[in-house]
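TASK: fixed-backbone design
INPUT:
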């Protein structure tokens, strides 16, 4: 997959007729394909994107397309600033590394050295290293707000509001350093620690950092009223392009605005070619996994993985219609960056499509197991019906309707399945999405899902003995004092419940075992006391074991 091609001189024309002279290692066919991929989600009269490829410190592809702001008809250019969201975590981590180099903190420091009001009842150490690698167990503040039925982006919360909510948390998702779960709270707390240690505001400290990186148009923004333009406004499309007012002030996990030009400069620095006054050893360290970390896939605000046979580093950012992707292939010393302000675009996919072109990946190359190895014993539709779960409570529900088999997944439309072989089904209108059913060594029914874009994963059916079970006993009210959220449950017959969580509208709940209730995006584990059902533990995407005690 080496990029050893004849160097040719080309002039690239952007969608705004901005000319950029560059030396390119790509063929005309490759460049045309890159150009097509870049603007595939930018029709005429739409918001758009900015994308670039940096090879060994040189820009070898750069493209701008679409509107930055319909209000003044401005187009996206080199000067346009995008919210790059969670891609800013790498700069929060870099700030920590500079303080480490100045001997002002250690990665093994307990965070309560700096934030003593947090988790007084948790005896295990919660270290700065845990925050950096998402192994702290601290719950994601956005999921906690959602539990309270707070639409965060309609508020003007700041880091003080985050600290106030986390101070009320008595428990963690898990014991620190025993598991990995991405949580934005980790990097917001890092921002607060940076302030405590440096004696400067997080904004001031990181602005100095960006000055040293020669990134003049990049900054975290903790006062939405003072964000400097030109800004690419974020647009969704629900039959027409719609924007919204950005009034968010939380920083550290994201809320960072930058230009593609500045992001290119950062990639040059990462590749060892950009000019910066920050020590090269610090930059190098920021691109590695954290020393002695138990987590192999997350480092200093950066994910690690394998893409079609090549080791790579990457991160995604998403805040509403603002989305950003950066991917780096160290063996090739090449980076690909995409920034967007359109809800129609998926830069994580688009940027990897560009990587396929750049790395000359063969279309028929097989990098994932995309179908069952062989056909197994016959499984009837009746044997399939039920709810299947992963260890983290991701669910598939299979049910028969009008003589047809359907798969239900949370947050997605029901899909009809067709039989492909004795124990293999596939989605009716997407045969590449396959489901293989078989019995495991414990006698449990399992389903393994296959697709072209992900590795296979397996779910196990949740079966339970309902003899003597009192379905009415679960009805009642349960309170979580950490968020002051009340859950109200009422039995509705046939394993179904009406469930109201906080101020949210009542929704349907389905009990799938005597100890597990599914409610929308949540799983609720049920625990008994001598008097009956007394405690519920709620699990969500980035929150685990949120405790609700029976109140009534």
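OUTPUT:
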């Amino acid at each position: 997959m080496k990029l050893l091609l004849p160097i040719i001189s080309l002039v690239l024309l952007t969608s705004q007729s901005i000319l950029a002279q560059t030396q390119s290692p790509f063929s005309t066919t490759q460049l045309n394909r890159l150009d097509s991929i870049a603007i595939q989600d930018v029709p005429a009269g739409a918001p758009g994107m900015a994308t670039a490829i940096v090879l060994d410190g040189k820009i070898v592809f750069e493209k701008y397309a679409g509107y930055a702001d319909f209000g003044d008809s401005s187009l996206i250019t080199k000067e346009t600033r995008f919210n790059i969201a969670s891609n800013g975590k790498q700069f929060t981590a870099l700030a920590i590394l500079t303080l480490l180099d100045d001997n002002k903190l250690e990665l093994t420091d307990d965070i309560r050295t700096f934030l003593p009001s947090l988790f007084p009842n948790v005896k295990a150490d919660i270290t700065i290293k845990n925050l950096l690698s998402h192994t702290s167990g601290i719950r994601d503040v956005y999921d906690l707000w959602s539990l309270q039925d707070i639409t965060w982006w309609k508020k003007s919360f700041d880091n003080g509001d985050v600290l106030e909510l986390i101070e009320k948390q008595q428990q963690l998702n898990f014991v620190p350093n025993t598991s990995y779960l991405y949580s934005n709270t980790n990097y917001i707390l890092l921002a607060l620690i940076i302030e405590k240690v440096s004696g400067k505001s997080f904004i001031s400290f990181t602005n100095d950092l960006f000055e040293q990186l020669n990134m003049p148009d990049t900054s975290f923004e903790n006062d939405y009223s003072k964000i400097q333009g030109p800004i690419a406004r974020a647009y969704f499309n629900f039959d027409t392009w719609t924007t919204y007012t950005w009034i968010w002030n939380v920083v550290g996990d994201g809320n960072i605005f930058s230009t593609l030009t500045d992001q290119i400069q950062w990639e040059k620095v990462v590749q060892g070619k950009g000019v910066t006054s920050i020590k090269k050893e610090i930059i190098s360290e920021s691109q590695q996994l954290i020393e002695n970390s138990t987590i192999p896939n997350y480092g200093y605000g950066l994910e690690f993985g394998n893409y079609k046979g090549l080791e790579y580093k990457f991160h995604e950012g998403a805040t509403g219609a603002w989305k950003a992707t950066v991917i780096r292939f160290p063996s090739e010393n090449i980076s690909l960056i995409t920034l967007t302000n359109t809800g129609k675009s998926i830069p994580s996919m688009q940027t990897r499509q560009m990587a396929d072109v750049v790395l000359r990946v063969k279309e028929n190359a097989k990098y994932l197991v995309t179908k069952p190895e062989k056909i197994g014993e016959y499984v009837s539709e009746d044997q399939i019906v039920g709810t299947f779960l992963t260890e983290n409570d991701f669910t598939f529900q299979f049910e028969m309707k009008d003589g047809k088999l359907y798969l239900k997944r949370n947050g997605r439309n029901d899909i009809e399945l067709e039989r492909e072989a004795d124990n293999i089904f596939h989605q009716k209108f997407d045969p590449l999405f396959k489901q293989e059913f078989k019995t495991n060594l414990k006698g449990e029914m399992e389903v393994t899902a296959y697709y072209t874009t992900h590795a296979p994963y397996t779910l196990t059916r949740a079966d339970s003995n309902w003899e003597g079970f009192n379905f009415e006993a679960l009805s009642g009210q349960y309170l979580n004092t950490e968020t002051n959220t009340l859950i109200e449950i009422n039995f509705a017959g046939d394993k179904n419940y009406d469930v109201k969580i906080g101020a949210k509208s009542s929704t349907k709940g389905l009990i799938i075992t005597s100890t597990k209730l599914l409610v929308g995006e949540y799983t609720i584990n049920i625990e008994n006391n001598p008097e009956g059902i007394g405690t519920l533990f709620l699990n969500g995407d980035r929150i685990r074991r949120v405790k609700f005690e029976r109140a009534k």
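COMMENT: The two ends are 64 Å apart (CA to CA).
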